[in-house]
């Protein structure tokens, strides 16, 4: 089955620790995205990548870092510099056609204690 | 600036019809998406409109008016499983999605 996987579903970390969220897709999509979702707010773009070894900052990139070493993988690191990291994190992928419907992974809920 | 506005919450009755409105302001416009998101789950694609008019898909329809910067999602024959948040998102000139905060739809028996 083609799709996007994110792991883990739930993640707990102590304040001050870096944490890496996994995102893998087997849809052969060129573009991948990371969003953050907080209660009562829309999805906010953290980073996106349209090609291997290249990525762009979104609206709220501060305190986050990404890599795109393989087409299938786009891990997100939440660093200790992120002031309020507790949130629901969603990874998505899409093709590069004009009509770029995004497919989402199941999400990771990160709680920083 | 870019902005997507939609109501925060709506309530409807099982079997009825509900219309969820969305107004948008984007830098350029390359279409409008509607997604459904159940609590704690990933958004799933419902519809995409780039031309004016109504697109029908079973119980769900989506309408777009580019001149008015307006869209709506129409849900017919509501079922309890339709209780979810509905996200409106506009595709801007850079082909980036600008997301609304979502409308939480509550279905009552």
Describe the structure in your own words.
The complex is a heterodimer of chains A (113) and B (109). Chain A is an all-beta fold and 113 residues long. Chain A has strands spanning 4-7, 10-13, 19-25, 31-37, 44-51, 54-57, 64-66, 76-78, 87-94, 103-104, 108-112. In chain A, strands 2, 4, 5, 6, 9, 10 and 11 form a seven-stranded mixed β-sheet that branches. A four-stranded antiparallel β-sheet of chain A has the order 1-3-8-7, with no helix packed on it. In chain A, a hairpin with a 6-residue loop joins strand 4 and strand 5. The radius of gyration of chain A is 13 Å and the shape is globular. By secondary structure, chain B is mainly beta. Helix content of chain B is 0%, strand content 57%. In chain B, the strands form two sheets. In chain B, strands 2, 4, 5, 9, 10 and 11 form a six-stranded mixed β-sheet that branches. In chain B, strands 1-3-8-7-6 form a five-stranded antiparallel β-sheet, with no helix packed on it. The radius of gyration of chain B is 13 Å and the shape is globular. The chains are: A mainly beta (113), B mainly beta (109). The A-B interface holds A 40-45, 48, 88, 90, 98-107, 109 and B 4, 8, 30-31, 33, 40-45, 48, 50, 87, 89, 91, 95-97, 99-102.
Question: Notable features of this structure?
Answer:
heterodimer; A: 113 residues; mainly beta; seven-stranded mixed beta sheet; four-stranded antiparallel beta sheet; 49% strand; globular; B: 109 residues; six-stranded mixed beta sheet; five-stranded antiparallel beta sheet; 11 strands; 0% helix; 57% strand
């Amino acid at each position: 089955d083609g799709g996007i996987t994110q792991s883990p579903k739930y993640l707990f970390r102590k304040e001050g620790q870096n944490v890496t969220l996994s995102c893998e897709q087997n849809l052969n999509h060129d573009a991948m995205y990371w969003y953050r979702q907080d209660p009562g707010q829309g999805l906010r773009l953290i980073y996106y990548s349209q090609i291997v070894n290249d990525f762009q900052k979104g609206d709220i990139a501060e305190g986050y870092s990404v890599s795109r070493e393989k087409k299938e993988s786009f891990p997100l690191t939440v660093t200790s510099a992120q002031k309020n990291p507790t949130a629901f994190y969603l990874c998505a992928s899409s093709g590069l056609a004009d009509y770029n419907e995004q497919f989402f992974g199941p999400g990771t809920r990160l709680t920083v204690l | 600036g870019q902005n997507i506005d939609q109501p925060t919450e709506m309530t409807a009755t099982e079997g009825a019809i509900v219309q969820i409105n969305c107004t948008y302001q984007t830098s350029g416009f390359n279409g409008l998406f509607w997604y459904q998101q159940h609590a704690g789950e990933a958004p799933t694609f419902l519809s995409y409109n780039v031309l004016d008019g109504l697109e029908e898909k079973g119980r769900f329809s989506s309408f777009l008016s580019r001149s008015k910067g307006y869209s709506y999602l129409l849900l017919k024959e509501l079922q309890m499983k339709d209780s979810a948040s509905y996200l409106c998102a506009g595709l801007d000139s850079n082909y980036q999605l600008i997301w609304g905060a979502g409308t939480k739809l509550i279905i009552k028996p």
